Amino acid sequence: MQLRMTNQREMILRELNKSKEHLSADELYERVRKRMPRISLATVYRNLEILSEAGIIRKLEISGRQKRFDSEVVEHDHIYCVQCHRIENIQIDKREMKVPTQEAVKGYTITGCRLEVTGLCPKCQQKISKTKKKNEKGDVVMGCGCKNDGLTDDQKQVLEAMAQCNGPCASKDIASATGLETKAVSCRITALKKKGYVQSPVRCKYEITSEGKTAIKA
Q1: β-pairing, 58-60 with 198-202?
Q2: For residues 94 and 112, is the Cβ–Cβ distance under 8 A?
Q3: Given 1.25.40.20, 1.10.10.10, 3.10.129.10, 1.10.3720.10, which CATH number is that of 148-217?
Q4: What is the spatial distance between Cα 201 and Cα 210, in angstroms, rounded to a whole number?
Q5: What share of the chain is helix, strand, coil (3-state, %, to 5)?
């Protein structure tokens, strides 16, 4: 059955192709809604899942982080920066890799293989180097390389509310706990995700990361 290409799907594909990056659903939503203001985040999530299931795009699930999407469907591997969460394509020669024995895979039928490479990208290496120099001068620096004053009161309030949640929580739950408007909470979450303090393991739901827990204690 051929997938019907709606205006929404065409716009999502266009933005993903144009970016040449491995964008999350939230990042794509911010780009798409500039051209389609009435589109919802849930609609972007749903269409990305449909497009990936149809093999038109690839869905990347790396280190338990927020899902990313790749417009390049030809088989290739990725390298992931553990600091800024950037993902880039890499080419790995797998010809000399040993295929696991039937005993080793415990009776499973192998359908594919994913090799995950992690590290620090050149930009993050430079930031860490600069942070170490600043730290030697007595500046208060957090483990992520950001100064402690980089967290606003509202952002800290959102993180504290997430820390109290038993698992992933929705924006409206955080808004109810903090007294902030839902739109304001969404803006704070977007900023916190860029800092690596928040992740979205479930569609339209969010939870605090270990880095975020460290930030509110600092």
Answers
A1: unpaired
A2: no
A3: 1.10.10.10
A4: 14
A5: 45, 15, 40
The whole-number average pLDDT for the span 78-97 is: 80
Which ranges of 105-152 would DSSP assign to H, the alpha helix?
122-136
Q: No. of H helices and E strands in the chain? A: 8, 8
pLDDT tens, residue by residue, 112-156: 777 778 888 888 888 888 777 665 555 444 444 444 446 888 888
Burial of 33 (0-12, 13-18, 19+ CB in 10 A): middle
Strands 198-202 and 205-208: antiparallel
Q: What angle do CA 66, 61, 182 make, to 5 degrees?
A: 20
Q: What is the pLDDT of residues 11-31, one digit of tens each?
A: 999 999 988 788 888 889 999
Residues of CATH 1.10.10.10 domain(s) within the chain? 7-69, 148-217
Close Cβ partners of 136 (under 8 Å, ≥ 6 residues apart): none
State how far the Cα of 160 lies from the Cα of 163, in Å rounded to an integer.
Answer: 5
194 C-beta neighbours (distance < 10 Å), count: 13
Question: Which position has the token pair 């919802």?
Answer: 40
The answer, yes or no, to whether residue 43 has pLDDT greater than 80, is yes
Q: Supply the pLDDT for residue 102.
A: 75
pLDDT at 60: 84
